[in-house]
DNA sequence: CGACGAGTTGACGAAACTCAAGAGTCGTGG
DNA sequence: CCACGACTCTTGAGTTTCGTCAACTCGTCG
């Protein structure tokens, strides 16, 4: 496997705080698998025997509601993993996974990791850390959905995209706006209108390119201080 | 510790699938601590050295937003645990914990559990299962918040309260309506009005007592099948 | 070229929040 | 023992936000 790819895998919670040698051994000779946009990795309810790490692209996790519509639960990018718990515990996946863009993902055999775990109990902590991080992300998402109006959630999304910089910056939407809207818990129309509202705060949108004049303005707005 | 209390602790994910002997040993001589309503267990950002299991009462987890308001993240009842990840990993608590009613909670020393874990790697699975369950609950909450209007979320809450029964049943709100409203992501006013709307579907509310004429009606409504 | 999908915009209606007032409970203290 | 205040909950009125439906633009790709 590519060194660049390995570096991305290493950013994952599971591989971040372990020895380089152990990390390489866990990956073994596995190599990232290419996925075309729209391709389904597994469905909600499937029993999956491997955990997945995104090396490139974006994988959306979604849940089907009874009335036919889907709800986006998460969108995972490079370095992020999913399906750990379902794979390691052998329980049905709680959400379906589908490529939201052309992607490359690495799959690790759960059985192998499980036996590794009994041999080296310290491995339990990275796994727990990974699960904990997933939980925290969800909690934050839930919190924002409950406490912030749509426009502020968009501001927060843009601020996250921009990263910890100050001042002006140009960012690119990582995936389709419709999907972003779903992830933020709103309709595409509302997302579009929300972006329009942010124009006054120095946000210019052209296609998937976004120019932000002052990131800290957005960040303050997302926090609810404004 | 009381046998009845122990039975409740055993319902927890951490203790459900392990030997009775091991469970008793993990609890050791710890005994549930009484908490009065309003008492704070720990604050968001605290480093906590023990994980908590509710034996009686209700503990709410909440996050403070910058503008002063709190957002309810979860409300844990008998048999439920929280703070595992923060305690075991030694990272700051992601939410604060406060008794929403007079309660009794059992606290287990994280350091002890950690050493237990390195000695017996199989213990990693119950811990992972616990974390996974928390995550799943959050995902479902997120899903409902995104996809269902307020009244349906209330219907779902009532259906959950009623359990897997059929027909008519009387239930009691486990904690204050204001808190329920927060947990469901709405204002107390909306919750009150939502309950009023459900009157037509055979839901009668008197104080904290609720009479439901047909549970399956509520359940169908909550699913989005209407 | 034409079909399709993504995105934007407008108009409208429904849902939910805010502000405000009032009823009922409970605990406290005179 | 009663009066008061604090608190929870409900209800009303008004406003905002958001979703729905629909039309239209603009790329992309056969």
Structure report:
Two copies of one chain form a homodimer. The first copy, chain A, is α+β, with helices and mostly antiparallel strands. Chain A has helices spanning 3-10, 13-16, 20-27, 84-89, 110-119, 124-147, 150-162, 177-183, 188-197, 215-223, and strands at 33-35, 40-42, 50-56, 59-64, 70-76, 81-82, 96-99, 103-109, 169-172, 203-206, 209-212. In chain A, the strands form three sheets. A four-stranded antiparallel beta sheet of chain A has the order 1-8-3-6. A four-stranded antiparallel beta sheet of chain A has the order 2-7-4-5. Chain A has a three-stranded antiparallel beta sheet with strand order 9-11-10, with helices on one face. Chain A starts with a helix and ends with a helix. The model of chain A has no long low-confidence stretch (mean pLDDT 95). The first copy, chain A, binds a DNA duplex (30 and 30 nucleotides) through α9.
User: How many structural domains does the protein architecture of chain A include?
Assistant: 2
**Architecture of the largest domain in chain A, according to CATH?**
Sandwich
Task: Please name the two chains that share the biggest interface, counting residues whose Cβ lies under 8 Å from a Cβ on the partner chain.
Answer: A-B, 44 and 44 residues
The CATH topology of the largest domain in chain A is Jelly Rolls
Q: Major beta sheet of chain A, specifics?
A: 4 strands, antiparallel
């Amino acid at each position: 496997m590519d060194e660049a790819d390995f570096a991305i895998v290493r950013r994952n919670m599971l591989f971040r705080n372990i020895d380089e040698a152990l990390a390489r051994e866990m990956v073994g000779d596995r190599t990232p698998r290419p996925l075309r946009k729209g391709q389904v990795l597994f469905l909600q309810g499937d029993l999956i025997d491997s955990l997945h790490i995104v090396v490139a692209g974006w994988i959306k996790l979604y849940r089907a509601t009874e009335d036919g519509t889907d709800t986006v639960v998460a969108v995972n990018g490079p370095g992020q993993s999913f399906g750990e718990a379902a794979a390691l515990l052998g329980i049905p996946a709680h959400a379906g996974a589908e490529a939201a863009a052309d992607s490359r993902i690495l799959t690790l055999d759960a059985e192998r990791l499980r036996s590794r775990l009994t041999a080296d109990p310290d491995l339990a902590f990275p796994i727990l850390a990974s699960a904990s991080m997933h939980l925290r992300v969800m909690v934050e998402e839930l919190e924002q959905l409950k406490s912030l109006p749509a426009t502020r959630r968009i501001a927060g999304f843009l601020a996250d995209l921009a990263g910890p910089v100050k001042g002006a910056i140009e960012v690119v939407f990582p995936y389709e706006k419709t999907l972003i809207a779903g992830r933020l818990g709103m309709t595409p129309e509302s997302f579009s209108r929300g972006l329009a509202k942010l124009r006054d705060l120095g946000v210019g949108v052209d296609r998937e390119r976004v120019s932000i004049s002052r990131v800290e303005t957005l960040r303050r707005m997302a926090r609810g201080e404004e």
